[in-house]
Amino acid sequence: MCERGCCLQDVFSGTSAGGGLVLALLHRLLGKQRPMPVCVVTLSPWLDLSMFYPSVDALSAHDVILSRAWTIRAAKM
Asked: In the chain, which residues have pLDDT < 70?
């Protein structure tokens, strides 16, 4: 994809980590001055793999699925 850029009908979408990958691909395409997709949709993209954002700890009691330890392990994969 990065070699040729995008076609006029390309649409990129992703959720969570997939949304982060879509945005990383856009960044790469921009850096190579390649054509952009016609549309991009991300839902809750995972952007901060460092987990240093203050709300991570502030909201930890309310987030029953994603603990700091789990997300740090996932970010290292």
From this structure: 1-8
